[in-house]
Structure formats: structure tokens, C-alpha cells
Design brief:
Keywords: NAD, Oxidoreductase. This protein is α/β, with parallel strands linked by helices. Helix content is about 40%, strand content about 15%.
Length: about 400
């Protein structure tokens, strides 16, 4: 049972983590170390757990509370004695005024519907979720979804954050994106920061969030190792299509060079190309996105980390090695042990935005990655996307070649 609120010290913040997967469990660990450290927070950190029955027959939430470990999604890591797993979503969020959302993005609309009217009026939220919803009226970032459905302010936290490395306290960075209230942003920074997890804040929610979203599509392309065979031909024949107007580049080819062992110089160049297209797409959607955001941890660092490792690249590599004959759903179930693959669903959402706005030819790799993912094209189709000339007029300025 949650402690009674009658004897609580005024103005202390109570934190609930909504989500208990790999990254959610690591987030709870980070936060729990700081709620014990700072008197402005209540010690206890609630973590909502989507209840599962383990092979032993025990409930996941009960095992977490007994062992202080998420034995399924983060085995071997102590979360902190002040982390309490709660399978009741309503109860988990009821008394919290700081809500940390970290679930697969496709579940967020349903979660928000369940807790409307059941949270504190003074609640603040932060999203660690990488993805977006695509509606008839256009793309909706998860932070916006939370704000619109729950009526609360929502910041975001993104960065080069492979959860298992942070869990064992290897140094990492992250970026908090906020809208106007710098004071609440600094409170989130204080809640997450540790000697091994350095957090900074920037006033650019959409920029930070889109960096975290789009890099997962980059990672899908980076993992398609069988496509690497076509890279030299692609560069020689279709080099001009990598460049968009105002110096913006084509997208996510990072890992294509790995199988050819073309070296670190080439890999670095491809990562830069991917980053430039992420920037172009983001600024087309939101003119408020700041250039400097792409040089924060949420931008270039997260792109590099995700292209060198992570679940999206792992599944994409397996997909390509099987010639596209095994679906991503099948590979996700086999390789990720219950975790969700974000890049494929995000590629679909990005495709829908591009299609609706007539931008498919402007972002040919994003388009092709989605069509390969859904089986409409074979992996070798990566050499065909350049048959179409990009519509440079969609972006400001003229095409630039280097």
C-alpha cells in the first residue's frame, strides 16, 4: 500500500515511472538513486508494470518487489530498495506529480485514455518515448499527445542511451527538451542526473523528440547488411540524390559500409548524411526546431550509438541476412524477448507523413526503408530509389553539391 499522504512534507515531489521494460527499469534506477539523495523528492518511486506471468508461474511485479530486479527485462541489476513495482496503472499514477512515460509509443494513446482524470492537477510529465502518432490532421509527437490528452505540460528526454550500458553505470549523456518552464526542466535534470549519466536541457521539445524518433529509422537501414553490396554503384550513379536543398543530405545509410569494410572515414561520412536528412525532415515539420539541438546528445550522439548497436540494427541485420523472407514481427519475437522494435513502426509513420505531404521523392531512402520493411520491395531495391528526382522546391534555397 502507498503511504498515507496526511503526514507528508509539503512541496515534496512524488515520482511514478509509467513503463517497466529495459529502458523503463533503468530510468527507475536512475531516479530512485536521486529521490533518496534530494529532500525535495519522496523516497519511494512507483514503477507501473504491465503484468506478466513468468515461466516460474510467479507474477513479474511480485518478483521485482521481492528481488529488487526486473528479472525479465533487466536481469542482474538492482533497481533500488525504494522502487516499488505496481501492476495497477490507476494506483501507480494517483499520487504522483512527476510522471515519467517510457513505454512503446504505440501504447501511449491507450495509456493516456485510462488515466484521464485520475492524475493530480499539478502533475508534470516527461516522455522518454521515441516515436510519433500519425493522425488525419498530421503527425503528433508523443509529448503533444500526452499534453492534449492529459492536460499537463510534457518535457522529453532523449540521448545516446543504450539501457544496458547505463544499467552497469557506464558514462552516458542525455538531453531534456522543454518548452517554456526552465525551472521544471532543471528539476527533471536533477532527477535523472548521476555521476555516470549527465543530463542537460535545451528549449526545443520537437527537435529533441524528433532526433530520438528518426534515428530509429536510420538504424533499420544501417542494419540491412545485404544492401551494402550495392553501395559503390549507388554512390557512383546516384550521388546527386544524397543532397537536398540548403545543404540537407539524404538519409540513413550508415551501416551499408560495414560489410564492405570500407573504413571509419566512410562510416563517419554516411552518419553525417543521415544526420543532415534528419535535420531536413524535422525542420520541414516544425520551423521552431533549432540547429544546435542536432549537436546535443539527442542528435549526433544518439544517431551514432543507434547505428553501431541496439535492437533496431540487430533485427534489421537479421532481416537482411534472411533476404527479407522473415518478417520483422517474427524477428522481434525471437530476438528481443518481449521488447518492442521501434524503427519499423516509426518508418511506417514517417512514410505516411511523407506520402500525405507529397515528400516521398524528397526523402527516397526513408520511403524505400519502409517498403522493404513491409515486404513490398526486396532488400536489393535500395539501388532503385534514385530513379526519382527530388523536388528541391520543397525546401528553402537551392541544391548544393560538395
Amino acid at each position: 500500500m502507498a503511504p498515507s499522504l496526511e503526514n507528508e512534507v509539503p512541496n515534496k515531489s512524488r515520482v511514478t515511472v509509467v513503463g517497466s521494460g529495459n529502458w523503463g527499469s533503468v530510468a527507475a534506477k536512475l531516479i530512485a538513486s536521486n529521490t533518496l539523495k534530494f529532500p525535495s523528492f519522496h523516497d519511494e518511486v512507483r514503477m507501473w508494470v504491465f503484468e506478466e506471468t513468468l515461466p516460474s508461474g510467479e507474477k513479474l511485479s511480485e518478483v521485482i518487489n521481492r528481488t529488487n530486479e526486473n528479472v525479465k527485462y533487466l536481469p542482474g541489476i538492482k533497481l533500488g530498495k525504494n522502487v516499488v513495482a505496481d501492476p495497477d496503472l490507476d494506483h501507480a499514477v494517483r499520487d504522483a506529480n512527476m510522471l515519467v512515460f517510457v513505454t512503446p509509443h504505440q501504447f501511449m494513446e491507450g495509456i493516456c485514455r485510462k488515466i484521464v482524470g485520475k492524475i493530480r492537477e499539478d502533475a508534470e510529465a516527461i516522455s522518454l518515448i521515441k516515436g510519433m502518432e500519425v493522425k488525419m490532421e498530421g503527425p503528433c509527437m508523443i509529448s503533444t499527445l500526452i499534453t492534449e490528452q492529459l492536460g499537463i505540460n510534457c518535457c522529453v528526454l532523449m540521448g545516446a542511451n543504450i539501457a544496458n550500458e547505463i544499467a552497469v553505470e557506464k558514462f552516458s549523456e542525455a538531453t531534456v527538451g522543454y518548452r517554456q518552464n526552465k525551472e521544471i526542466a532543471e528539476k527533471w535534470v536533477r532527477l535523472f542526473s548521476t555521476p555516470y549519466f549527465m543530463v542537460t536541457a535545451v528549449q526545443d521539445v520537437e527537435g529533441v523528440e524528433l532526433c530520438g524518433t528518426l534515428k530509429n529509422v536510420v538504424a533499420i537501414a544501417a542494419g540491412c547488411d545485404l544492401l551494402m553490396l550495392f553501395l559503390p554503384f549507388y554512390f557512383l550513379k546516384h550521388f546527386q540524390l544524397l543532397f537536398l536543398s540548403n545543404g540537407e543530405f539524404g538519409t540513413d545509410s550508415t551501416g551499408f559500409v560495414d560489410g564492405l569494410e570500407m573504413g571509419n572515414n566512410t562510416k563517419a561520412a554516411i552518419m553525417r548524411i543521415g544526420l543532415r536528412e534528419m535535420k531536413a525532415f524535422s525542420k520541414l515539420l516544425f520551423s521552431s526546431v533549432k540547429d544546435n539541438t542536432f549537436f546535443e546528445s539527442c542528435g549526433v550522439a544518439d544517431l551514432i550509438t543507434t547505428c553501431l548497436g541496439g535492437r533496431n540494427r540487430k533485427c534489421a541485420d537479421a532481416f537482411a541476412r534472411n533476404g527479407g523472407k522473415r518478417s520483422f514481427d517474427e524477428l522481434e519475437a525471437e530476438l528481443l524477448q518481449g521488447q518492442k522494435l521501434q524503427g519499423v513502426s516509426t518508418a511506417k509513420e514517417v512514410y505516411e507523413v511523407l506520402n500525405h505531404r507529397g515528400w516521398l521523392e524528397l526523402f527516397p531512402l526513408f520511403t524505400t526503408v519502409h517498403e522493404i520493411c513491409i515486404g513490398h520491395l526486396p532488400p536489393s531495391a535500395i539501388v532503385e530509389y534514385s530513379e526519382h528526382t527530388p523536388k528541391f522546391s520543397l525546401l528553402e534555397g537551392s541544391a548544393q553539391f560538395y
